[in-house]
Inverse folding.
């Protein structure tokens, strides 16, 4: 192990470039966004910003669209966790055993993760098209025409559909992480459990899950931070409108709209700040309370 | 169905497939179809004419036609978008590889007071949503002429990728044995050489994985490009895809082709490098 004193110059030299990028272009803007949320500004430099106190926040809290976007985000968070985590775990557990062609499955399941949200959205938009889409035509073909719907334009359905597509894209990511976690459990443990006569439910719920608790915790935090950032998929699927009547709006979408369409940078920053703080808070709470292994030191 | 069915390898020469195991394969195949079929459908549809698509939605193309691809490459010149994205993504990754490995080297192989604090400092960035800092970045762009400027976009992508890249590479480098450097030091190797000629080559798996993830992050981005690139001649592939959809909203087969074109580079890179990708992801999450 090298020490600091002798190699000060090198250490500092090696750290500075990345630190510069990180601080100047991520931390400083994050801080700036928080400050800007207390101002009223339309983004044109010459017109200057007026201090506005917490007005931006108050205006937001009084706006029903804001609360709609929060409800959507909550729905997205809950449903994403409830769909992605169990499915990923199930598939990971099945694939962790003796499966022929396991790598084919792994590569295929992970594939949607690396696709751009834009491509995924467009693909599903075409598949879910009301008249010419694959899904409705399939339902017609098997005699279930009654079940066909205008999936993306029905205000009662569209956000749910978008949530499911979001889950479709990301399940593979958590599958791979959970698979790696399960792989750390020694095979002898499973054999011992078999000898002791433990059934599958006991094995999974009483042994496997507690053993990979931290990995599951990481997954939950990652799912949540991904949800906070979800923008591309909604933007493209609703062609930039965020749904008939804002029905598909989410906080970051509203932030985009306020800042770049309505030129209201102050309010946009207020939303941005809330998203930032909420994300940090929720992630920390969930991880520490729910999943931290108590380490014996 | 017991746990055996899933986990235990059948011993002996006669491998009897338990009937319950078929259920496992059925579940896996069902999920496989749900995952892969949309892409296959997209590909097949892109090779059909509109009439073929409407009358024969499920089947193979009655007559394979490449008109859509012709339109994309010759008329829309989508290859330009691809080249732009390629330039941005590659430059981003190269810069990140250099500056983040340097950080990882220092944080993993050196012992000093702020070592752990600095690592956490970098990793905290993972929690910052890109969207939350978009407004200040727009303001920076206004001040520093960042609009329609690939270099500005690149440095933003670099900055956003730093936390994740540092996380993955530091974790990996921490796992390298100490003896390597000790031997090198005894031989009179300078620190810079140890970094460049020993640690870096050994860390290739982690660096490759992090680089690939960064590449996809920059390649797939939409919102930053949407805000910063107003010039039609400078569009990235994501923007090209969106604008093509808006222009050609009734041309279903054309849109399918656009999707395929935009994901082909990604898929090629993915299939060539998928082992590395998965290794990198798990390295961070499981050890972290």
């Amino acid at each position: 192990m090298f020490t600091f004193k002798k190699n000060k110059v090198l250490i500092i030299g090696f750290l500075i470039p990345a630190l510069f990028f990180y601080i100047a272009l991520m931390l400083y803007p994050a801080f700036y966004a928080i400050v800007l949320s207390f101002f009223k500004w339309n983004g044109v430099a010459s017109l200057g910003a007026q201090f506005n106190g917490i007005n931006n926040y108050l205006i937001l809290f009084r706006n029903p669209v804001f609360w709609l976007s929060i409800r959507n985000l909550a729905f997205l968070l809950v449903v994403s966790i409830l769909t992605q985590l169990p499915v990923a775990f199930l598939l990971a557990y099945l694939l962790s055993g003796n499966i022929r062609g396991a790598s084919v499955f792994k590569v295929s399941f992970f594939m949607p993760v690396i696709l751009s949200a834009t491509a995924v959205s467009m693909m599903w938009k075409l598949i879910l098209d009301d008249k010419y889409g694959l899904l409705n035509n399939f339902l017609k073909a098997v005699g279930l025409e009654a079940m066909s719907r205008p999936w993306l334009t029905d205000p009662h359905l569209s956000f749910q559909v978008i949530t499911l597509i979001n889950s479709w894209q990301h399940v593979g990511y958590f599958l791979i992480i959970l698979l790696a976690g399960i792989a750390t459990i020694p095979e002898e443990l499973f054999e011992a459990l078999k000898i002791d006569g433990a059934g599958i439910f006991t094995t999974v719920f009483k042994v496997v899950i507690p053993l990979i608790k931290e990995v599951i915790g990481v997954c939950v935090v990652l799912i949540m931070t991904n949800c906070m950032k979800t923008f591309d998929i909604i933007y493209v699927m609703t062609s930039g409108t965020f749904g008939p009547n804002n029905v598909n709006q989410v906080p970051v979408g509203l932030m985009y709209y306020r800042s770049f369409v309505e030129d209201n940078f102050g309010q946009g920053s207020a939303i941005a700040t809330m998203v930032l703080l909420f994300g940090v808070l929720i992630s920390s709470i969930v991880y520490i309370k729910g999943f931290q292994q108590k380490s014996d030191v | 169905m017991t746990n055996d069915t899933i986990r235990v390898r059948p011993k002996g020469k006669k491998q009897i497939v338990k009937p319950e195991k078929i259920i496992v394969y059925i579940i896996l195949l069902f999920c496989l179809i749900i995952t892969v079929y949309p892409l296959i459908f997209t590909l097949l549809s892109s090779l059909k004419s509109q009439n073929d698509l409407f009358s024969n939605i499920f089947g193979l193309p009655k007559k394979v036609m490449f008109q859509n691809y012709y339109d994309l490459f010759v008329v829309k010149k989508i290859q330009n978008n691809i080249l732009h994205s390629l330039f941005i993504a590659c430059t981003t990754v190269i810069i990140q590889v250099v500056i983040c490995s340097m950080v990882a080297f220092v944080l993993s192989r050196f012992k000093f007071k702020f070592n752990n604090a600095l690592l956490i400092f970098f990793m905290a960035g993972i929690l910052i949503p890109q969207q939350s800092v978009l407004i200040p970045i727009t303001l920076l762009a206004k001040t520093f002429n960042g609009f329609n400027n690939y270099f500005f976009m690149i440095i933003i992508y670099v900055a956003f990728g730093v936390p994740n890249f540092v996380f993955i590479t530091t974790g990996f480098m921490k796992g390298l044995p100490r003896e390597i450097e000790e031997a090198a030091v005894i031989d009179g190797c300078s620190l810079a050489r140890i970094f460049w000629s020993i640690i870096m080559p050994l860390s290739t798996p982690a660096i490759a994985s992090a680089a690939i993830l960064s590449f996809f992050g920059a390649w797939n981005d939409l919102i930053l490009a949407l805000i910063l690139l107003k010039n039609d001649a400078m569009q990235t592939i994501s923007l090209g895809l969106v604008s093509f959809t808006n222009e050609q909203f009734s041309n279903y087969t054309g849109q399918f082709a656009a999707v395929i074109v935009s994901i082909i580079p990604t898929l090629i890179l993915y299939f060539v490098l998928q082992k590395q990708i998965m290794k990198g992801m798990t390295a961070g999450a499981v050890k972290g």
Summary: Residues 148 and 229 of chain B are 5 Å apart (CA to CA).
